[in-house]
Please model this.
Amino acid sequence: MSAALRIDQPSSDEAVSVSNVSRHFVGRRPLFGGGSAPVARAVDGVSFRAPRGSCFAIVGESGSGKSSLARLLVGLLQPTSGEVRVDGAAVAGLDGAALRGLRRKIQLVLQDPRASLDPRMTVFDTLEEALQVHGLHPGRDARQARVADVMALVGLNAAHLDRYPHELSGGQRQRAAIARAIICEPEILVLDEPVSALDVSVQAQIINLLMELKQSLSLTFIIITHDLGLVEHMADSVGVMYLGRFVEQGVVEDVCGAPRHPYTQSLMAASSHHGAEAGAVLEGSIPSPLAVPTGCSFHTRCPAARVLAARAPAAAVDTPHGRLPRRCVQDQPSPMPAPGGASIATCHFADALPAQPAPRSA
Model:
């Protein structure tokens, strides 16, 4: 069984361990009419493990909870329930020196470097500040030498050190953001949509840079993305997220090569280099986490559910979203392992529906 699926067996070889983690945001109670305060279930019972040196991808649409999960991993959010462990240490409750040590070990690279870099600081000041915060390479000369080494690693030179973010191109800004993340010698990088804000011509350069750094620095990657092509290129294992939960999870070759969940199949169909043969393209938008549908949370948009309802009308019910299987509407599905245990799909009919082969680009 894949290491990514051993969700109940912690191991010292795991860089990141996430066990049944949830993060709920409670809104304000209605001013009139009473009632309880609304609860947004941004992350709802997610588990996965990432061995050292691996790349685990989290993929899904905007609003699925990917970025909230990324912030839970680095300690910017605290879980409502469950546990996040980095290098065997629980993240929740850390403060002071312990939290600073964690943040040196696991670093976050955000989607838009224009927003993540301080516009009032030069590239050198940004990188030096990280060393000063963590007390590394004391002395101006030592810090300058470390900054120069990291600049060379990310493909920038001394001419960029005195520039402000607005004086850099998009690719150069993201290289500077990556330099800031690796300058303190972390073990894990959480990459939240690291190339989606860049021009297509620059994306391949940054992806290749990240893969080179992963190899040369022995890094573990957790990558947050909606790009299935990027997942296939970079990741070892993947979790497909919908409304705060993983609906399919396993090794990339199985999840992307023969997806079993209708949502994964639809994402593959929407991917520009797979085509419609991978499954039906989704219609509509993802529901609000304030009002997660009953039963299977995907039933309001599931193309496979409509086909199944037509095949077995006696077991179907009418809903505002069409005629759907009663089981999909009323019962929350349990994870179903694939034969051989290389992936799991949270779908009532995962074994009844044929896995859709996803053609790969030439």
Notes: DSSP finds twelve helices and 14 strands in the chain. The mean pLDDT is 87. The first helix runs from residue 66 to 73.
